[in-house]
Amino acid sequence: RVQDYPLGASAAYDWLARLCALDLAQRRTLPGLNPERADIIPFGCAILVSFFDLTGITQLFVSDRDNLYGALRALWAEGGARP
């Protein structure tokens, strides 16, 4: 289950360290990781860790939907349009 999974900054740091310690062949065997994306996953994780560092946010909720959905949820939470 991915939708609305709470992801903390410390978990992101841990995953970055784990992913960087593995070579490409090892990352391709990780359960839940698309083998075709194993080459770029550490870079995405590094971007996420940088986001946590720059914003000071300590947790976010993962979404398997796009940014528009998130914007609509935020608008809805403010009493605006419903998603």
Describe the structure.
The chain is mainly alpha-helical and 83 residues long. It contains four helices and two strands; from the N terminus they run βαααβα. Helix 1 (9-21) runs antiparallel to helix 3. The radius of gyration is 15 Å and the shape is globular. The mean pLDDT is 89.
Main structural class: mainly alpha
Number of strands: 2
Order of H and E elements: EHHHEH
Strand order, main sheet: write it out.
1-2
Distance, first to last CA: 21 Å
What would you report as the Rg, rounded to the nearest angstrom?
A: 15 Å
Shape label: globular
Mean pLDDT: 89
Discrete helix count? 4
* Low-confidence segments: none
How much beta, percentage-wise? 5-15%
Helix percent band? 40-55%
Report the sheet with the most strands, covering strand number, pairing sense and barrel closure. Answer: 2 strands, antiparallel
Notable traits:
single chain, 83 residues, mainly alpha, two-stranded antiparallel ribbon, 4 helices, 2 strands
List the helices and strands and how they pair.
Layout: E1 5-8, H1 9-21, H2 24-27, H3 41-55, E2 59-62, H4 67-77
Antiparallel strand pairs: 1-2
Helix pairs in contact: 1-3
